[in-house]
Amino acid sequence: EFIEFGSAQAKEEEKRAFDNDRAHVFHSWSAQDKISPKVWAAAEGSTLYDFDGNAFIDMGSQLVSANLGHNNPRLVEAIQRQAARLTNINPAFGNDVRSDVAAKIVSMARGEFSHVFFTNGGADAIEHSIRMARLHTGRNKILSAYRSYHGATGSAMMLTGEHRRLGNPTTDPDIYHFWAPFLHHSSFFATTQEEECERALKHLEDVIAFEGAGMIAAIVLEPVVGSSGIIVPPAGYLNGVRELCDKHGILFIADEVMVGFGRTGKLFAYEHAGDDFQPDMITFAKGVNAGYAPLGGIVMTQAIRDTFGSEAYSGGLTYSGHPLAVAPAKAALEIYAEGEIIPRVARLGAELIEPRLRELAEENVAIADVRGIGFFWAVEFNADATAMAAGAAEFKERGVWPMISGNRFHIAPPLTTTDDELVALLDAVEAAAQAVELTFAGALF
Ligand code: PLP
Question: Which residues cross the membrane (predicted)?
Fold first, then answer.
């Protein structure tokens, strides 16, 4: 309705967007001279449209945020209604929608939580979570996994595993790393998940001992590792880390920015660790409002909240809990709470996606590993960049806009993707994997 695909005007708009982008937009995470960004015209459900009207399934949900698809009428309407009433209010005031969202998150999160601190996204949620942990415990050191991504601001960048911050100045010297379990690339030469789990816990225990347990405020962990490889921890690992935390008075911060709000088939991914498992803080963003406006936050226990009962917490942002960001969060939480979407993600992840990918791995000699859960899967290849590029081209040929990270396909479509779209996506994964295999084998022989 906004654009006639393929028309002269559409082509003109696309060209203007691209030219101005190249002339004036500085892109994140990019070598500015080497990029040629695709310009999108519109999106609906799980489909992205370019200016010619070509349709592509959104395989990566826009950095794994568009959990409820594009142009979801309930979220759009929530923003429109809020915009017509109250668009901007200093966070020091009360705000009915923000209160509703806080109450709803606390009631939906499994465990004993009491308060929510709102931020503009994931990285600032991480910054505040570790600041609060330091003030709460009176300790300064923070531990995180090498294979992790926690955001691109000061301390969040330091928490993010070493390889991500090459070239960045050290802004927080009190952050230390450990090797969380990853069977496929085991640092311990483990051959089973049990072995990998046991040794990763022993290693973490050593890191805690050598860094000085009494100096460590918190361990920050993604309950399922996201952009660093989609790694589901072995059964017992999160519980083992929790035990170490309890033994030494260390806080457990679950970074659910990417996997929270249904991605793994549970509201929060830490729930896979069992009914008794509870983190001290949860950081969230993305799925909380399906990416309809910038929003993130921290869910915390009463004990942490009480640290700042009589002494002020100094920290916050002009737009913390912005009305136009919490309005779609309220609508999104209502949709999650209706109870259809997340159980379907768990079921289709186990019954449709997993068997199909495992079968593919049997047939395709270039596939090194398949792993994941819910609507969150990695297919890892033994292949070079040329072969991966052939895979990307095949995806586009088949109407899928790929999410590829190094030698991995990441499969993370919106949680509302239909059965037919999922099958089309998996067909494309198979064809793209074949293109990788043929190109790589072709280079070898
Ligand atoms: N933590 C995790 C686990 C993430 O995946 C991300 C982003 O992908 C972040 C933190 C940072 O979030 P943001 O990009 O909203 O700052």
Answer: none
